[in-house]
Amino acid sequence: xxxxxxxxxxxxxxxxxxxxxxxxxxxxxxxxxxHPKLKETFLNHLHQTEGQVERLKAAFDLLGxxxxxxxxxxxxxxxxxxxxxxxxxxxxxxxxADLGLIAAAQRVEHYEISGYGTARSLARxxxxxxxxxxxxxxxxxxxxxxxxxxxxxxxxxxEASSAMSKTQRKSAKAGK
Length: 176
Ligand SMILES: [Fe+2]
Description:
The protein has one domain (about 5-175): Ferritin (Up-down Bundle). It contains five helices and no strands. It has helices at about 5-30, 35-65, 75-90, 95-125, 130-175. Helix 1 runs parallel beside helix 3 (about 75-90) and helix 1 packs antiparallel against helix 4 (about 95-125). The longest helix is centred in the last third of the chain and has 47 residues, at about 130-175. The N and C termini lie far apart (about 80 Å). The structure holds fe (ii) ion (FE2). Fe (ii) ion binds near residues 19, 49, 52 and 112. InterPro entries: DUF892_YciF-like, Ferritin-like, Ferritin-like_SF, YciF. It comes from Paludibaculum fermentans. This is Ferritin-like domain-containing protein.
């Protein structure tokens, strides 16, 4: 019995379940996002996620295993937190709500980056180069989604802090 292959299959089953949950969570995140670019990023990532599920299925095929998902409790937790963030965002100014969504999404991306990174190392170690190649493609998408979210957060933070200093200047004037 190949213990590394078993472990790889287990990791892939976890990722399959994680991606499946994102297929329902991402449209909700996109709906809640205010900034059009953030909305677009979530929708693009939803489209990528559909492809990632297909890639995982192809990886199972290459390994001669059935694509059976294994409940990913970590992603369930992250998705539950994401739903909370959406709810809390309804009470927040738009920029803060969007920044909260970005934070929740980046947690998800980091979880996936870690999972795909491990799975790829295992695939390489047992000489499953085609599987490793599929995982590299997905890993690249997750990393660029994470990067895009960081880039999107920068102008939002600047906008929020300049609005804050304007308010502070106004109240300082009013206090004179
Ligand atoms: Fe993904």
